[in-house]
Amino acid sequence: MSLAMYYFLTISAIYILMSWALYLPYRVAHLHFLTVANMLISGYLAGYLVQSLGFAFALALVAGFVAGGLVGYIVSLFIGDAPTFTVVIVGFTFIYISRTAVENIKAVGATMGMFGLPMVAGTPNMHRLTILILVYALIVVVGFLIYRFEHSRVGRAASVVFVDKDLATSMGVDIKKLGRLVQTFSSLIAGGCGVIYGFIYRSYHLDFFTFHLVGIFMTVIFVGGYTTMWGSLLAAPALYGLSLILPPAVASWRIVIYGAILIAVLVLKPEGFITRRLAYTLETTLSRWRKR
Amino acid sequence: MQVFIAQVINGLSLGSIYVLLATGFNLLLLVAMIIHFAYPQVVVFSMYIAWVVLRYTGNSIVLAVLAAILSSVLLNVISAPLFQKIMKNREEVDINTTMVMSLGIGMIITDILSHGFNKGLPIAFPPKLVGETPILRVGLISLMGGQVASLAVGVIAVSGIFLLLYKTRPGRAFRAIAEDPNGARLVGIPLLRTGLESYALSGILGGLIAVLLAMLLGYSSPGLGEQVAHKVLAVSIIAGLGNLAGGLVVGLALGIMEALVQGYISGSWSNAIAFVVMLLVILFRPRGLFGIKL
Amino acid sequence: MNKKVVVFFLVLLVSVSLVLVGCKKEKAAKVVVEEWEVPFLNSLTGAIASIGEYLQWGAERAAYEINQAGGIAGKPVKVIGVDTALEPQKGVVEMGKIVEWALVALGPVPEPVIMAAAPIAVENEMMTMTATTSLEYAEKFFPWSISWFPKTADRLPPLSRAWAEMHPDMKSVVQFVGIYGPWPGMAASHVVGIEEVGVKYLGDVEVPQDAVTFGPLVVKALDQKPDGVIISCWPDKAAKIVQELKSRGWTDMEKVLLFSSADDAALYTTGGADLNGTIIYNYINVDQDTPRWNAFKEAYQKDHNGLQPPSLSTNYYDAVYMIKRAIEETGVTGDPKKLAEERKLVAEAMLNMKNFEGLLFKWDMSNGVPTNKPGYLFQIQDGRKKLVKEIRP
Asked: Are residues A193 and A282 located together in one domain of the fold?
């Protein structure tokens, strides 16, 4: 596999996972931008543990997941059932706080960044293979969990919350608890992604985690489809790949192209390309085919 | 004491930027139920148009103002049907879809400015627009004409729009369409014409804000809109969505707080501290300090 | 007997000459490429597109001149701009493609992309010429990287000291510091220099990346009653700070020092005449009068509405010439089958290249670090820099 293909696959996988991390809270109509802050916090934490304290990558990865989940859980205690606006502000706040904190902490490289993170396996090829397997295994696991969530009572409850919070409350849905669950899980995924993202590059820099990332992941969800998890699976590699294959003269306008795609999809196909109906149709077709 | 006064004046100056942008933002909320996250980018685009006109007309301020207003009106009117199409529930603010739509618009505007104007470099406005000397200088206290104008116009704009929307027939018609289009139609309000007028009003305000920001800052850059967009959104939410008077108070307060943090604590922590304070406010008052006025 | 000796030596001389000529011919004949393609990982779009543009311009100008003069080892050279748009996720994919075929690469630009993509070049033992970043970034990737600047702690104190020495009455200085990349480290080095001549350092005033007004920061600085000010932040913000200083009564513009990273078109387009009198340091002397520099300057101004070439515009120009010299001295052929071996040869040639004839001065490389590069203090007047002092290490 070429290096270009390796980076394309791994970074697409991160995009998919992060889009799912945003998708999950969006099921209860929360734009949970805290996830980018989770990436940053867990990423730098893992980098510090590995480089400065000699932790093994696996332990650091676990620490990254735990840190993400913990931050997400603590924050969700306050905003589990908050209005969408509050959740948005919380996300912005944590992005600013975490960036400022890292700028001022010399132990994690401050504004210079962290260089030369060790490989996760003995040789460069093994390192890349390990990261690739890890990240796609995560996609399978997280995808499975989200799939089960969507086909569960809790998932159906989330759908009701999205449509009408008051109706959901009157049906007995505990919105706060549901909000806490999705936000915590979302932050957990984001924490792990932050760790892996840095180890793909074997370095961390503040400009790896910017508000720009928020825009990218939101575009993936809304273009792919925000009503099912499958949209992100297709939209993430497609949008990322688009920037890589456009000819140079056109590529210089790619942000305009992304913006135009986003607007066009919102206007013409508001649910995104993969709608719930389409997903349901595909699922039933697949299960009928399996039964045969 | 002199330093404190100077910082408060600096804060009011910074705050007036937030007030102006939040006022335009709130106006769109009130007349169209739109969270236009990219409203600052629209204003910055109008600043660029004003700059182009100034360059090619020998610094004609009148033409620049007209051009800024026209470009802002055009952008608003063009984007209006896009927003209206995607809003699921016209009677309520749909932060999710309108915010995402405005994100897309903001991305396009910022990139066009990076490509198509001045090779992506910042633009500077002529000194006579900005004011070459302070109108008041006492030690470290300095007051430029642009600062006074933007603060004064900010206050006037808030008052004027408040009066228009709540005390005049056209204003009530704008709000009626935003809150209940069907009901508005039933009572004989012409939807299309009134809707276009409301967007045009927002555009006029946007153009004026562009000129005021040009006077206040003296420069603009493609990324300027993005730099302030988070704070403008935060100001509106903290004040209470649609709350014009609240936006005035919170905008100025945020400006003063940022100035004092930069002046007495640290520049690098000013954003983080400002957002923490806003976060604490919103956790305890989710509907904003002054209540939602939609 | 004498005749036989003479004939013997003549034959020996002719044979040796033939061998030498034959070798040369053999070298020239061995170049297999039709064109030397040099990829340049650059930010051609995004927030620093304006900087990427003139870096690309410099590299392409060098390629143009080289081709006019016959190319590299007789073959033309082409600089291929590869846009990373300031995105590390794009940079790694592009570098992943480049390492499959390129002999040497220019860039990446800027630091986030360097950090993400340079390790790929290191792993594939390909030289990347990071000619716009500080040594502290470039050295992480030695020996597959090369620095255009000596150590910051060695490079900057003489410059700030020279500025301080210009103003013996300047007893205290405050500094505006942009919180980005290597700038805090550069700011610390400025302090070392001024303290060497007994100037008191009053402290940093941190400039946030998204600052839009500068009154609070300038009041904070002026409240400390400095005699001098150093500004180490983004060019457009540096210009606004100068304007703000003036609006609060600052008149002694010579006691305002701008650092080299602020020397960009954005500084001049934003600051205009308000910058008149300020001092800026940099590494190229725009007032030099040499045919080569005059031609470069003229061509730049023709393409850029009369603007003076920023100092970084020469870096990748020199880098392309360095590649030319390395290829010609080592006799590499561009044969894809010998890529690994030829990459090593070219890299080794560059790391310790002596007497390299840059556009504006000669310098030596020592293990990838330049030695004996001068610095200059200029005074800005009407958008132009006037040489005040040259500082040699």
From this structure: no
